[in-house]
Design goal:
about 40% helix; disordered N terminus; about 1150 residues; alpha/beta
Amino acid sequence: MEKIAAKKIESWIVVKWMFCVIQMIDQVMKNFLDQVQKIVSKGDFSQLKSRNLGKDIQGEKNMNSKYIETLKRHISTHTVRSVEDRSAVSYLESVLNPEGRINTSFASDDKWPNHDGTFEYVSNPDKSRRPEQNFVVQIKGTHDYTESDGVISYSLKSLAFPAYIAYEVTADPGILFIVLNPDVRGEKRIFWKYMSPSFIKDINFEKSSATIKLYPEDEIKDTDESIDSFCKKLDQVVDTHLFLSKLDKDYLTKEDALKIVHYRCEEISMEIESVSVHPDLRDAISRKIVRALYDLCHSVLVLNAIKLGYTDINQKLAWEVSMFKAETKYLYNFLRGLKYIGIRIPEEGQSERLMLKYYNYLWEIRKFLKMNFGIEVLDNLSKFPLDMDTLDEEYYELVAANIASPDLTPQNVRVSRYYIQKTVPFFVNGERYFEVTLQLAGLYATKYNRITVYSKQYISTRYSIQIAYTEAELELWGIKNKIKILNNWKVAIDPVCLNKLAKMLMLHMKINRNYGEYVALMKFLTDTEMDLLQIINLSNERFKQVYDHIYGSTKTHDFGEVILKIRNNYAKSSNKVGRYTIRYVLLNLREEILEALLPNQYNSRSLDELYITSKCYPFEQKPFISNLAGKRTSKGDIKDIIEIVDDKRKVERVLPYLKIEKLISETGELFFDKKIIASDEAIKKYNSGLDSWERSNGFMINEKEGVVSIDSYESTTFFILKRLLDLSHIPNREQQKNNEKYLRECGIEFEDELKRIAMKYLFVSSQVMLIYGAAGTGKTTLIKYISLMMNQSKKLFLAKTHTALQNLRRRVCDVGDNIQFSSIDSVIKSNESVDFDIVFVDECSTIDNRTMKALLEKISEGTKLVLSGDIYQIESIDFGNWFYYAKDIISTKGSNIELLHTWRTEKEELSSLWDEVREKRPIITEKLSMDGPFSEDLGKGIFDLEDDEVVLCLNYDGKFGLNNMNQYFQNANTKSEEFLWAEWIFKIGDKIIFLDTRRSSLLYNNLKGTIVNIVKTVSSIVFTIDIKTCLTEEQCKYESFDYVENTDDGTRIKLEVIAWDDELSEEDRIKTVIPFQIAYAISIHKAQGLEYKSVKVVIPSSNAERITHSIFYTAITRAKEKLKIFCSAETMAAIVKSFTEQEVEHRTLRLIKDKMHLQDE
């Protein structure tokens, strides 16, 4: 009975879906006919030259109402898939796979009512992987045909597909595939027919079927020659059917633009209706929608230009004028993004990601058309599935209600400046709102100084802003929380940034916020949301208009001179050295970036005519692959680089390199099949464009036997592994006697036998020891034992982060004149050699290859190495695979040990879960659900906080982000009044954690503390804090905080923060930044290296995709006794599934062993 009921429901859904489709088709045709009849009555057929209507208007005269009704009747019919049809689909897919030229998306079942799927056609994938055209197909399999004189006659029993094409439900060309004898081995034959206008006209739609003639030239054989011939014919079809080339060249009238808008919006609405019924098809349908967006965007751009009073509008003009209004800036970015897609084919699953971005643009278009042209389109846009869970909906409904209720009259903005870190749209009752994460601007601010505000207004500027907001109160599970609702904002670039930019150009300038030209410039940037790069690249006439608008009534033109000099020397047409650096600065006017670009005491050389460090020269030569001084631009700022270079040829040339880098980042692999990267010609072209410096620094793409790699990544990996391998083969037989003697006399009671064995064979057969182990297995304890045993040796302890170094110093507890602790970066940057008997390196998984290579090059001959880490925790930011592969390469006795027993916790169920997750074993979900249980739905249980307990979050924004979580916990602290400072609230009793600031080296990153008193005045706020580290009064004597006294578990200090003012000295500016954050909740990344008695991990559904295996593993291994993961069942399933879903072929280790002539065990 249940099966019967399920089938009935399924049938009802299909019927309802088909009914919706037919209704949409009805509406499309009604609107189309209205347009045609108006023009036909006038006899002016030239108006219908728009490529979207596709047919000659003379043919439309014959499309009378009877003909239309006939087409609709055929479209509404639906034939059930036959066994032959299914076999035909399978065979066709196996044949149509010509090296990436045809990318099929067929269905063997009845997924679509009038067609059987689509395929994308790429004319020459070696030259470009951009699809030339999308084709809609029908696939029929049959044994029922006749053949005479080489001509085959086949009866097409249903005319639904030809009618579908004739009725122009889709703008894509149609192909009918007929497979004869699809299930008979050796007798299968494929034929094809293009649904051309002439082919459609030959069909008599008054009948229920049509006889199709199949000629020898229509056959596709399973040979390379036949497939090539078929592709050449597709090229001809594309030439006649390609819309984009015509639209780019022709002027578009208002009438044509409106027709395209109606046509495309109705097409998109129909697809949205489909995806709302079948959300599992979101990616496939998104691909179709995305392909329809180009001409929709173009048409809206034209309508925007018409609204502004322009005539004779082409794409270039329409695109340019859109940038001058903040409310239409999205159109400029929209079309730019759509053009950029043409460089590459989105991989499976990426189209829906694009659609989620463009979804917001569609809302803007909908609003624009309604307000300016009275057109209502995309009325079902909210039906597109965004997968927001119920909790988020409830929260955002409360936020929306509060946005509607307060007085949002613009107020005077506050003093603090912020950068927009992230903007997330959300939708309530058909209205769109924004959740905006803002990061404090300034040289001494950190990424942790963030706040969240809510608004109905979208802000797209990339410059720092000042804001005004109204506070509203929300309640979550009985706990009240305040949110900030934006009611005013303005662009407010720090004058220091403008002055430093002038300094780079060797112009003396010192403007401040009171200058009239500063006020005028900020107003223009606020009103238009343009950036300075766009301004300097304007045409002469438009630039003059903009410049006069800003400086026409100002007394000074100091920064105007800067703009003019940049325009004259470094604008789009310039080839001067320094142009890319200056353009990058124009996009990113941040003091920390500017400061890193200026020459300093360590590198006083400058770049040609500019006062910019000579370290920028590699970036000037190859901006896509070389980093700008002080920035990792080649890894994270590719969009910015594309904008400042503005040369498609240069982008295409570096694509092979960028693709390999992307795959390395995603997979951790080093070697890749050349076929998935680029053609021989593309790789050769890239390599030939490199100069001698770039070649010597490893930017070459190596290729051998069809496998490619990046030279620097490969060479550093082999250098490190070979050096470690050499060290592992240097014996010292006398060492074993010393080790055994120490173990007999030391008095250590080894709970873990592996540690005793490791110390017995330490440096006996190898001068290097690699220590691997999960969190809590005692890696640092073993390092401590080794240090004590080698007490006569000169030792250096290294770590990547200050937190890891402090943990190492505290736990090793070894003191003396022969011991030194330092960060690895400071050691490799030093001019001194590393002259120690033993070098210990902790947290090796966070150390990249270049850093490790540099360290090995500095180490003196005869120095022994102890290297420790966990390859399953969060990895290095830059490329760092050496420690992972060393585990399998270094195998001499005593050179490699993996600690297995977890000592961080005595809870068997907890350590068992860690092992399961670490090894990606199959019963992670069961252990999460049954053993703790460790998982729980998001609820009020999050807020029951115990001593030595922390909440871990992935990000700052959102209902369950750090900002909100810390406020909830802080509000639960009712023992103290609130102390408001800038945009932050503090209370006595708040848990805090120090940040990586320049305030004091003693107040190191991740140092824990508690606020025990607060004194606030107009100009400052003084915190008395108990910190979890022991300091002496002498140590604090010259620091920017005061020593009070020592406590049972640390030190009490007083720390003053002063109010911001643009005129403060450099020394005082650092005191304006609060060097800690409230730490009831902290980020997972910040928690690495820390441990707590109890840990709660909060993972809302919106973060599921970003929780990688290493992030999840790091989070759960912070707990010593208790662990609870708060997330929905769906989120947990998605996370666990992702651990094994993206497994890749691990060829790198095999190739490394082959190249190093090593044998597998």
